[in-house]
From TrEMBL:
The keyword Cell inner membrane does not apply. GO terms for cellular component: membrane. Signal peptide: none annotated. One of its GO terms (molecular function) is 4 iron, 4 sulfur cluster binding. InterPro entries: Mopterin_OxRdtase, Mopterin_OxRdtase_4Fe-4S_dom, Prok_molybdopt-oxidoreductase. Keywords: 4Fe-4S, Iron, Iron-sulfur, Metal-binding, Oxidoreductase. Pfam families: Molybdop_Fe4S4, Molybdopterin. This is Molybdopterin oxidoreductase family protein.
Length: 337
């Protein structure tokens, strides 16, 4: 029981390093790996419960096959694999491989699916591949492709080093997704020279630590973010040097933002106007600023537009070059009169 084995958590994109002791098929003990170059021993509540997820009482212990009456009966692994393979081959032979699609792999935490699924899909000739990211991040990927020329080119936020951090539709205290989340959030909140801004309808744990919490009405993210961008433009807080060197189409975008009815959009979002202006000022004038978003923004109303607006807030800090900033096509008539 003194033999600690190194591994990593796969429950979010951070993949924190762990040390575990295994006994009788269980993770008997779990602790953070101090030698891990990123997490450096940090451990969140998700990782401490890995054995619970691995050995949950409701987890299937054997494959189950549906019977004619709708109930299930246990079958062996060999039997299950053989019958599944036979059914897939029959479908492919009868309807071509285009009738098949593969779903699996989270894309952020569990990367094993990419290894074993690619060989399977190649063997079967399957073109269609879906994962959790296809549901959660479709709009975000599409925006990346339009702005940066590649769907897999995206902005990586440097939250732990930023002077001003804006969290939109995410609660890293529970969901993590940033380096050593709770420790990092506490460090930002306790430093009087740094600003923590949260945009979220809920008073989350992260919002409770914030210097400014914009508690907007659900589904009004696009209105609020449009207003915030418009404020930055009208105040002259955009980075003109960066925009001239690394973007195309900014003048068209600027004209669109100048048409935004700021007061009306803030009213629709249901937040305090003075707080909005202060949040924009702090973010725009900070030496180093970062935006972190997640599913609260990307799975709500106007989700694709939300992703565009969030990236526009971050783009001046981006390392991608020749960013396209065209915006008109994203706006409905209601959002862009």
């Amino acid at each position: 029981m003194n033999n600690w084995q190194p591994t990593a958590c796969i429950l979010c994109s951070r993949n924190c390093g762990l040390l575990v002791q295994v006994k009788d098929g269980h993770l008997a003990k779990i602790r953070g790996d101090q030698r891990h170059p990123v997490s450096a021993g940090y451990l969140c509540q998700k990782a401490t419960q890995l054995d619970y997820y691995q050995n949950h009482a409701d987890r299937l212990r054997t494959p189950l096959r549906r019977k004619a009456d709708g109930s299930f009966e246990p079958v062996s692994w060999d039997r299950a694999i053989a019958e599944i393979a036979e059914s897939l081959l029959k479908l492919r032979d009868a309807h071509s491989s285009d009738c098949l699609a593969y779903y699996g792999g989270g894309g952020q935490g569990n990367h094993l699916g990419a290894m074993y699924s690619s060989a399977f899909r190649d063997a079967m000739g399957i073109r269609y591949y879906y994962s959790a990211l296809a549901q959660e991040k479709t709009g975000d990927f599409w925006v990346n492709g339009q702005l940066f020329g590649k769907q897999n080119c995206h902005i990586s936020e440097d939250v732990e080093h930023a002077d001003c951090v804006m969290f939109i539709g995410t609660n890293p205290w529970q969901a993590h997704g940033i380096r050593n989340a709770r420790r990092t959030l506490k460090q930002i909140a306790q430093n009087s020279n740094r600003t923590l801004i949260v945009i979220d309808p809920r008073r989350t744990e992260t919002a409770q630590l914030a210097d400014i919490h914009l508690q907007l009405r659900p589904g009004t993210d696009a209105f609020l973010l449009s207003a915030m961008l418009a404020i930055a433009i009208r105040q002259g807080w955009e980075d003109q040097s960066f925009l001239q060197q690394h973007t195309v189409g900014f003048e068209q975008l600027r004209e669109v933002l100048l048409q935004v009815p700021i007061d009306d959009y803030i009213h629709r979002a249901g937040v305090d106007s003075h707080q909005v202006y202060e949040a924009v000022r702090r973010f725009a004038t900070a030496p180093r600023a970062a935006v972190r978003v997640d599913l609260g923004l990307q799975q709500s109303r106007n989700s694709t537009l939300n992703s565009y607006l969030a990236i526009r807030r971050e783009a001046p800090r981006s390392t991608c070059t020749q960013v396209s900033v065209g915006m008109r096509a994203f706006f409905s008539d209601e959002l862009c009169p």
